[in-house]
UniProtKB/TrEMBL annotation:
Encoding gene, per UniProt annotation: EFTS
GO cellular component terms, semicolon-separated: mitochondrion
Organism: Trapa incisa
The protein, known as: Elongation factor Ts, mitochondrial
InterPro entries named in the record: EF-Ts_dimer_sf, Transl_elong_EFTs/EF1B, Transl_elong_EFTs/EF1B_dimer, Transl_elong_Ts_CS, UBA-like_sf
Subcellular location per the Swiss-Prot or TrEMBL entry: Mitochondrion
A GO term, aspect molecular function: translation elongation factor activity
Gene Ontology terms describing biological process: mitochondrial translational elongation
Major localization class: mitochondrion
Amino acid sequence: MASLRNVTKSHIGFSLYKRIACNAFLERGFSSSSVDSADQMNLIRHLRERTSAPIKEVKAALVDCQWNIDEAQKELRKRGKAVASKKSSRTAGEGLLALARDGNKASVIELNCETDFVARNDIFQCLASALAKQVLLVENPGKFSEHITVGPEALEEMRLNLDHPKISGENTVQNAIAEVAAIMGENIKFRRGFIMNASPHGVLSTYLHASPKRGLGRIAGILSLEVENGASHIEAIQHVGSELAMHIVAAKPLFLTKELVSADALENEREILKSQAATTGKSQMAIDKMVEGRMRKYMEEVVLMEQNFVVNDSITVKALIDSLSKEVGSPVCIRNFFRMEVGEGIQQ
């Protein structure tokens, strides 16, 4: 170190001396009695920067490892996985959706955590984006325009390479999730994923709402538009597709057409409306008319083609598609759509 101190007297300067001395310090192991309080704080700060673990856990690992920062980092990862397994039963209703595209194929996944604070962390976001890209690699036996569900079991043993300075290197998906959970100190789960393919004559359109950065958001809308001989009007088709993906997020349709509304959904809604109408004290004939009128209103609320278009509520989605078909000179249809929101269906 005497030679290093001499550096400060040269033209190189004191800042270079500090960097070299700091690196030399971090590469050594120490007993607790040989590390003064200033050096301890340096080690704690550097290990926290490396791992994002809580300060209390960082200090405990350094003490147990005789202030060897590399050994302490390994120890934190071991402890973190144990802690993460204990937290796996806790409700994880926050998180993000991540979207990935490859030509006419798109995937969207939901990665859950316990708090919005963790959802904003760049390590968590890096994992979510990597998982969406990984889902694109899953073999997809479905037909064009179907959306295929991808569960956690389909990914667990696949290899994943996270490109992040605090957690990099190849690992299985299962272990990568466990490692991020250890760093974050929360229960983190890959809940679900979907893949949708468009046909050779189709166009996939997507929209992410409440997006903190490209490819991430809290609500996703995806649809497949199909058209024959519409290549010369691809920009018009893509524009309408983007607006419809936004519409799906805002309007929350449940079915594509009236014919696809399930018998159970119709029966449940009819029974609810009958019960409500019966309290009016009107005649049975009047009640029946009220129920039928409200059923028509129900269809306008839950069927995509019957909904008023959110961008221009003077027309329905069906009228929009008819107008687009005339513009491109070929029939256009919506083959499929789905909407996905973080935490939907999770009991808090």
